[in-house]
Specification:
About 45% of the residues lie in helices and about 30% in strands. It is an alpha+beta fold. The termini are far apart. A hairpin with a 2-residue loop joins strand 9 and strand 10. Strands 3-13-6-10-9 form a 5-stranded antiparallel β-sheet, with no helix packed on it. Strands 5-11-7-8 form a 4-stranded antiparallel β-sheet, with no helix packed on it.
């Protein structure tokens, strides 16, 4: 090493021991720095490997959960199929049992149906007989009119007889006319006593033909009979009479053949 001053220059020799120490220190420093670098590299590698391992673990967990879910679904589907098979087998067995019962019970069912049908027919027949059979208090009477015509001064009288002393029923009046009757209607006066002895005089109008001249009564060709109700709920005493007269403007009505009165007991 050279030292200079203003006047002289000095030279000093450094011993080799100092140089060896310096080199040793440098080597230590380099070793330390290399170790630190290696440690850092190892840490980074460990972090990288740890993240990879974590990712692989996560993927494995996801795969396992997916497999578990699929397995659960498969189990559920299989359970449902098993239940459906069981239900189908149960229903089939029940249907077979029902068919067997039906086969075994067919003769009894047929006999019961026949009995029911026969009983229904019998009751219907009895009802028809009861409806068609005349009541004990029913009455029906008709009087023929002369060919000369029905005069206003010639009323028709009927004596209503029935088994009971007093009966409830429907009072009707009927006339029979020919095709040559000159009017489309007929007005009547019907006089009768009720069970209390009160005299009733009802005016009854009969529309014998429509506006086109067609007869509305029952019959065809020569004669037609028309009937209408006078009193639908009459309390009548046996033996009391009913008188019928026409009250048309003409004094004598031609082509009237028959006048009648009916009393139908109300059941």
């Amino acid at each position: 090493v050279l030292f200079r001053s203003d006047t002289t220059t000095f030279s000093v020799r450094i011993s080799p021991v100092l140089t060896k120490r310096k080199n040793a220190r440098r080597n230590l420093l380099t070793l330390r720095s290399n170790k630190v670098a290696n440690l850092k590299a190892e840490k980074t590698n460990q972090k990288a490997t740890g993240s990879v391992a974590n990712d692989s673990l996560k993927s494995l967990r996801i795969n396992l959960s997916a497999r578990n879910n699929t397995a659960d679904r498969v189990r559920r589907v299989s359970n449902r199929e098993n239940r459906a098979d069981v239900m189908i087998s149960i229903n089939l067995s029940q249907i077979e049992k029902g068919l067997k019962k039906m086969k075994n019970g067919q003769p009894e069912m047929k006999m019961q149906q026949k009995r029911n049908s026969l009983s229904l027919l019998l009751t219907f027949f009895l009802l028809c007989l009861a409806a068609c059979a005349p009541g004990r208090n029913d009455y029906s009477g008709f009087v023929n009119i002369d060919d000369s015509g029905w005069a206003y001064a010639s009323p028709v009288t009927f004596n209503l007889h029935h088994e009971d002393s007093v009966a409830f029923g429907e009072l009707k009046v009927a006339v029979r006319h020919t095709n040559s009757y000159p009017y489309s209607n007929l007005w009547l006066e019907v006089a009768y006593d009720d069970a209390d002895g009160v005299l009733h005089k009802d005016t009854v109008g009969m529309e014998l033909a429509d506006v086109f001249g067609n007869w509305l009564g029952k019959g065809s060709g020569v004669q037609y009979q028309f009937e209408t109700t006078v009193n639908g709920r009459l309390r009548h005493a046996a033996g009391h009479g009913v008188t019928v007269r026409h009250i048309m403007r003409a004094d004598t009505l031609p082509d009237i053949n028959l006048v009648g009165v009916t009393f139908l007991e109300t059941r």
